[in-house]
């Protein structure tokens, strides 16, 4: 499989296990013979040490120029420190759609076999706008923002995806029984958009009930449409159905740019030990390949992943194997070369 086109990609290895899993994924992608040029940049604490900026201007410029980035995990301090790199980049480039497919890998036993869900999360509004202030000592006010533009835009994304990929059902997830204006506006927009897609069944569930229903029977759902905070929580919950955050892909998509990323943490306790699992970032790279219309390569990598998991010989420890990060990547590359 060859291509004449070169794809220039901004590469953000991240920290902790990020550089290890990123290097593994880059090796695998290059084994597809798709032409890549990588512009590598640090972000977060590492970038601050070097440049006194958490997101260097050169990194912003690279994404602006390439419209495409692959990103490893970056640590976000809890309760202080610098702002989330993920959230900052999503806002900067208007990456309004967070897209996470949740699907079992063959050969990996879980409590919920055969799960096939799509999580579509609004990525720029809600509680994550980060507008907070202390009213008086001991009292903090946090503002949630929902707009008609943002809600309509993410609903159209979900329904267009469902139509293109022959998904049958979308549920909008909300708490409009309590937050009648904000979540009510989100539902109003989703309902209006749904009218243009009569072939797709539309439903609405309250967020707390949805979490219970998912744990009881995830098979009743197909595509979930959620506001920012709800989507963040539910997408992690659903990842547990298929083996955890170390396995599921993530994409942040906008009208002009896209960032594909591992959704798990940076796991500094195992960094540098050659035991991290690169599957999440690798499956995110598969989404990236589809995004840049390298569909044959995307399918080849996905088949190689499924072959290696089915054989169970070279899996990492987190999924019951004994192999390291590099050995797992070598097995994927071998499967690609053998025409998996």
UniProtKB/TrEMBL annotation:
Give the InterPro entries listed for this entry. Answer: IsoCit/isopropylmalate_DH_CS, Isocitrate_DH_NAD, IsoPropMal-DH-like_dom
State if NAD is listed as a keyword.
yes
Q: In Gene Ontology terms, what is a biological process of this protein? A: isocitrate metabolic process
Q: Which SMART domains match?
A: Iso_dh (SM01329)
Q: Name one GO molecular function term.
A: magnesium ion binding
The coenzyme or cofactor needed here is: Mg(2+); Mn(2+)
Q: Could you tell me the keywords of this UniProt record?
A: Magnesium, Metal-binding, NAD, Oxidoreductase, Transit peptide
User: What domain of life?
Assistant: Bacteria
Instruction: Specify whether Isomerase is a keyword of the entry.
Output: no
Q: Locate the Isopropylmalate dehydrogenase-like domain: which residues?
A: 8-332
Indicate the family of this protein: Belongs to the isocitrate and isopropylmalate dehydrogenases family.
What NCBIfam families does the record point to?
mito_nad_idh (TIGR00175)
Name of this protein: Isocitrate dehydrogenase (NAD+)
